[in-house]
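As the work plan foresaw, our protein records have gained a structure token line. A representative record is set out beneath this paragraph:
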Amino acid sequence: MTAEEMRKSPRAVHKIFRPPLLKIYGFQCALVLLASVILFPLDKVAAYSTVIGGMISVVPNAYFARQVFRYAGAAFAREVARSFYRGESGKFVTTVLLFAATFALVQPLQVFVLFLAYLAVMLLNAVLLARYGLASNKN
């Protein structure tokens, strides 16, 4: 049986956990915007530095997740591997380009706040994925 025939044939397949990506990245965007709104009356530069740093984290991670979860199952092993590598390289390039564009185009900028927001959203991403992973293992 060829790989193409295997893809078309119905069979029981072990499902790989797919986290609710829209919820995760929507929640991250909402928290970044909330932090920015709280900071806005205190310091406008810190407020938009927070948004930029948070979005530099969210956008590449969302792209990566979209690429990784496009395919599932042993019949799609080649496509899964390709999409993983494509997602990881795209995430890296996008992150570098967003940081470079930010430093080149945005003045004034609070670099510490930018990196703090970036790291906070990265950690939040890991925590949310772990939480949804544990919740799916209980089911």
